[in-house]
Amino acid sequence: METIFYKTVPISQVASTVETILTDRYQIKNSNLVNSIERLKTYLKPFRSDLFVVIEHPYVDKTYRDTYYNYYASKNHSYHRNSIRLSLLNENLPDEVFRSRADYQKVKDSYLGFIILRPTFPAIVGRSLVSPKALQNMNIAICNVSYPATVNGLKVNVNGFPHSSQDSEAITCAETTLWSLMEYFGNRYAEYTPILPSEVNRILGKFSFERLLPSKGLQAGQISFALKEIGFGVRIYGKQQYKDDFFRMLRTYVESGIPVVGVLQNNQGIGHALNIIGRNRLNEHTDLTALPEIAQINGQKVSDMADLDLEYVMIDDNYPPYQTAQLTTPVSYYTNPRWTGCELTYFIVPLYHKIYMEANEARRTSLGLISSLANDINSPVLIRTLLASSRSFKDSVALNEELNKDAKELLISTPMPKFVYITEVSTQQQLLDHKAMGMVILDATEPKGTGIIAAMLGGQYLAHDLTSLTAINLNLSPFSTYQSNLR
Fold first, then answer.
1. CA-to-CA distance for 54 and 189, rounded, in angstroms?
2. How confident is the model at residue 476, as a pLDDT?
3. For the chain, which ranges sit under pLDDT 70?
4. Mind listing the pLDDT tens digit for each residue in 378-411?
5. What is the strand order of the sheet 438-443 is part of?
6. Of 46, 50, 23, the residue nearest 36 (C-alpha)
7. Which residues contact 165 (CB under 8 A, 6 or more apart)?
8. Cβ–Cβ contacts within 10 Å for residue 93, how many?
9. Where are the domains of the chain?
10. Check: CATH 3.90.70 for 231-351?
């Protein structure tokens, strides 16, 4: 039985150390070795140069083992079963730290995630879950999950979004996109479970009239079908169909903490799928003045944050995790000219199956109610619409130290469905400061925008008692916005 090998090295020495393992333990040589190491170097390029990496071999990776037994083991060419795991650390920790209870917290604080290297040469970079803190210049807000792992025998956790590179045979971009989504949902919500690549193929077998291995990739309809079979209430949005609302709705769903599958195409035959999981954070340099006017209240301009063309965060299996690009130019980080002109033509939203109201309907309903309430607006305002679970929303209300006490009790005591739409109203400066002057709460299980639960703006709080809206006078001051979706 082969002994597990652990070695901690600076990230600058990872490629050479892995090259030694591939040469000595896998007997890989010639072009496969060179190409494998070059791909690893390219993958590690965006990472911070001050990191340290615990290299572990052999490692049994559940995702690769699933692919191995369902595909690679049946091929004539011999493939290895074991992988290499790279564990990322914020600092260089001596071996004795990993065996000391007193130093356990130091290990947990230092841990920044893992990367699996699988023996599918030269496409050796497999699944990963890495904290954005491990990469350079990452000022992003994303859907993230706390993911359990181990390093040198110790249990640890890392917050991030699952990522995998494709091997171009058993898994292509569509399979990695589905796997990544379910790894996220399955580790964050009790209603879902992670799935392995073989399960993706089993589900898609119901939809396909030919074999699925080796993979030729998937169409948008197949991705949607797989998500529906898993239990989501899936919606597909097309750019031609939704026109001006297309990007607004996409941004609203991402703002809601829902990873969205983006489908890219160009006229050179490129078709690609990736996950859109977050955006750049707002800061003092964010220009809100150029946002288009969507309405007027008391002669004041009303704009929508969903029109703000920020850079959004992509989980793309052709690149390391957390690539950023504007939605209008979604592959600006690509250098291959074949990808020129790629645009988002569809996006697929994996919604909870009892969410019936769509993002554009929520926005329109909220805007109409805000217009009727805002009698004392005297400066330009912005709205921000998002989905939230009522549990998380009420938790944020209870802990919102700036929210009027009476408004807190009214909101917490109001019956709500599992999911609600929230539209917050802010001035430009308030939005940058993560503050709001008012909000509208809608029932996400009502498809036609009739499910108004509550609204508050200025000195008024409106509650729905099933027959009519009842107004209550409150002294509202600016309060903290809802921040639980993207972190």
1. 30
2. 85
3. 1, 168, 170, 205-218, 449, 465-470
4. 889 999 999 999 999 999 999 999 999 999 999 9
5. 295-297, 300-304, 381-389, 419-427, 438-443, 452-457, 460-464, 469-473
6. 23
7. 43, 123, 125, 126, 176, 317, 318
8. 19
9. 5-165, 177-230, 231-351, 359-480
10. yes
